[in-house]
Amino acid sequence: MPATQGTLRARLTRVLAGTLGATVLIAGGALLAAQSHTLERQLDASLRAHARSEIETAIDRSDHRAHLHDDAVDVSHSAGRTLALTKYAALYARDGAVLATTRSLRGHAPPWRRAWLDAAFDVTVRGVALRAVVLPMGTETDARALLLAVPRDALNAALRAQALLALGLLALALAIATALAAQLARWLTRDLDAIARTAREVSQGDLDARVGKVGGVAEVRSLAVDLDAMIARLAGLVATQRRFVSDAAHELRAPLTSLRGELELALRRPRTADEYRAALARAHDDVLALGALADDLLALARARTNADDGSASVAEAAARVAAMLRARADERRVALALEVPDALCVRCAPRDLERALRNLVENALRHAPADTAVTVRAEAHGESVTVSVRDRGEGVALEQAERIFEPFVRLDPARNRDAGGTGLGLAIVRELCRAHGGDASLDVHHEGPGARFVITLRSA
Ligand SMILES: Nc1ncnc2c1ncn2[C@@H]1O[C@H](COP(=O)(O)OP(=O)(O)OP(=O)(O)O)[C@@H](O)[C@H]1O
Ligand SMILES: [Mg+2]
């Protein structure tokens, strides 16, 4: 694995951990705020309860004098503990004067404020932060209200403890979230590593490398399947290419060997003029075969690499091919019939269409028995045009229908290298048609006798 800084896994971990962390943080904060609110309400309730019982006993029934007790205020804590807190209490008269205080407030009772009545609030006395409640007194005495307070310290300490606890839990949750996010990211990206490794292996030339079966998410699984299919296709293409090169070398060697043998034999000792002429004629045949092979190889390479666009009239191409091969047809006593409507045009360079038709008609003429006809027929089918070439020869076995389009495949044993054919004719036809968005095939549904080859091209 390269540096993790920019990797998908590192990013996923960061994003997941960040999101989870932020969620936990917000939830923790909200929980803490709710908790502190509850604690304050609990304290206020305890203060009110204590204040009510203080009010009961604040006025002496016999002499109507007011006095407050200096006992502690018991406040129940959220964790179930009870705290005894210093009591700060003051009794106010109707005119706001202080009637009585606990020792803790002696001489320092805060001045009366109307807004305090029935309220709970924070107040500071001699530097001590207090939580206070004020309750009204009954109407039968001079006293108007009782203020009862305790130091906030205890509450703050409880809040601090809870905040610390929450913070601890938060840190723990964050650590777990990060670990989980890292694990999840690892799980999500595990198969990507396998895919990347395979791609690297292929780029280093290992065409047997495959990602194979991966678990994980559906998208990654289908990426792995697609990549494997692509590598398999690539491997197939490379194998075909290698086979082609070795076949081509083999094909080139045959006429060259024959040529060399011919020349060596001629040079071995002095010959008569007739012998030299015969040797030269054989050498000439070999050179012609080499030339034909070179031409066909070039045509095939051109068909694969650059398809000139354009539009070609099928009738014109067929007429030119017929003119070119007329003599050969006559020689074999084979009639050439053209059934091609004038108006049909296809999207193909005229030269390429002519070459494809010529190869098919040449084959047909070669396989047609004497006194039969070879028919070239063109028809429009919607967006496409089919051109068929039919003869009345021995035909092609169904199982060879695809093989004959492979380079250098010749079925006829008599039609070997020495007989002149390169075995590239049909391969060139197919490549030319495919380069122009069409195709070429043997019509496997054709009812004999003979073979029917069909090329399909887009109409122009
Ligand atoms: N009309 C046909 N009838 C019967 N067999 C055919 C016909 N056309 C082609 N074939 C078979 O397919 C093989 C391949 O044809 P292809 O045109 O590619 O090569 P070729 O004709 O042998 O050589 P080339 O065309 O390069 O001179 C032929 O050798 C022949 O066996
Ligand atoms: Mg041929």
Write a concise keyword list for the protein shown above.
14 strands, five-stranded antiparallel β-sheet, 3 domains, Helix Hairpins, Heat Shock Protein 90, 50% helix, 460 residues, binds adenosine-5'-triphosphate, binds magnesium ion, 17% strand, alpha+beta, single chain, Beta-Lactamase, five-stranded mixed β-sheet
Structural overview:
- 50% of the residues lie in helices and 17% in strands.
- It is an alpha+beta fold.
- A five-stranded antiparallel sheet has the order 4-3-7-6-5.
- The radius of gyration is 52 Å and the shape is rod-shaped.
- The model has no long low-confidence stretch (mean pLDDT 88).
- It binds adenosine-5'-triphosphate and magnesium ion.
- The site of magnesium ion has 5 residues, from helix 6.
